[in-house]
Design a protein that fits this description.
Layout (H helix, E strand, L loop, with lengths): L8 E5 L5 H17 L5 E6 L2 E8 L15 H23 L7 E8 L2 E9 L2 E7 L5 H19 L31 E4 L7 H14 L7 E6 L2 E7 L15 H27 L13 E6 L2 E9 L2 E7 L5 H16 L7
Helix pairs in contact: 1-3, 2-5, 4-6
């Protein structure tokens, strides 16, 4: 049995959403908000239309001029509605890569974050936190919620949003070059400073982080220009993942995604800005996760003008790959490029 709704929350339903027909989904969402104190709101949408919202009490007002006085349901649904539109567009961008549908989108900055994901086609959930440390709790709680809705309500398999908690990451330590003599392919872009020591430092970092288990691709950009990129796509162990999409096509697609990210960034910033306004002097986002059925794409900003983009093609390894990319981003953040 689902736990009763917490007394510090309230559930506001639209007229078409009835307890008799949809009570189990409502109860699971109420239980999730009750168990995750950082979650400010959780909204459920069908075919792009809001069904209900579970809201925490009390909560700070949204940061926007577009809210309606006295209409808490529509106001709290606005960030999720905007994220739903962004996810629909980004899902269309990722679909030609052959890694399945976009299942989960996470936005985070120092003041909070948004989570959006599908339980099945045309059933979307969104959650928001407006505190600096609440995103991990929200992320984990919403991943579990979607898994429960799929398995307990719809009798569908769990799609492992966020990865498999039982999966093992790639062993730490230096790469075993003798075991895989080809190693990753690493290229330097036009934004890389022409300095032998700097170039070698980047190459060494990429060799240490890329592997055939979790993090399969990583790229570093400054001012939207490529600094360094590497992948292990040509390794025989990944061969089955390129049956329908060639290595060259996938490499080109991820570079195109990096270039096209600027066009999506404004809308993503608008969505998260309703609950977590950007911090002056910092990038509007710290983290963007696009979790598809076969892996994920991550974008982590290292400065207002720089970011790293990473990819895993293994759904079980989604969490481990992001942790590895985060470690890479931290090192990149601390490297001062030589004068151009």
């Amino acid at each position: 049995m689902a736990a009763p709704a917490d007394q510090r929350t309230e559930t506001l339903k639209e007229s078409h959403w009835t307890v008799k027909r949809h009570g189990r989904i409502t109860a699971l969402c109420e239980e999730t908000v009750a168990s995750a104190p950082s979650v400010r709101s959780l909204c459920h949408y069908s075919n792009g239309i809001l069904d209900f919202a579970v809201l925490r009490r009390p909560r700070a007002p949204l940061s926007a001029l577009l809210t309606e006085a006295g209409d808490d349901t529509l106001n709290e649904a606005l960030p999720g509605s905007r994220l739903l539109l962004c996810a629909t567009d980004l899902g269309g961008v990722l679909r030609p890569l052959g890694t399945g549908e976009l299942m989960r989108t996470v936005l985070a900055n120092p003041r909070g974050g948004l989570w959006g994901g599908r339980a099945r086609p045309n059933e979307f959930l969104a959650a928001a936190v407006d505190g600096p440390d609440g995103v991990p709790e929200m992320d984990a709680a919403m991943n579990r919620l979607v898994g429960r809705i799929r398995t307990e309500v719809h009798s569908l398999p769990d799609e492992l949003l966020g990865g498999d908690v039982g999966a093992r990451p790639h062993p730490s330590g230096p790469p075993a070059r003798e075991a895989r003599p080809t190693g990753p392919r690493i290229d330097l872009g036009i934004a890389a400073a022409t300095d032998t020591a700097y170039e070698q430092r980047l190459r060494d970092l990429w060799r240490q982080c890329l592997n055939t288990t979790d993090l399969h691709y990583a790229a570093y950009y400054h001012d939207w220009s490529l600094v360094c990129v590497g992948d292990v796509f040509e390794d025989d162990l990944l061969g089955p993942r390129f049956i329908d999409v060639s290595v060259r096509t996938r490499r080109t697609a991820y570079r195109d995604l990096s270039r096209g990210l600027r066009g999506h960034l404004a809308r993503l910033t608008d969505a998260i800005g309703l609950v977590a306004p950007p911090v002056t002097g910092r990038a509007s986002l710290d983290r963007l996760v696009l979790d598809v059925q076969e892996g994920a794409v991550y974008v982590l900003w290292t400065s207002p003008r720089s970011f790293v983009l990473g990819v895993t093609l293994d759904q079980r390894q989604v969490d481990h790959a992001e942790r590895r990319l985060t470690a890479l981003a931290e090192v990149v953040r601390g490297i001062t490029p030589p004068p151009r």
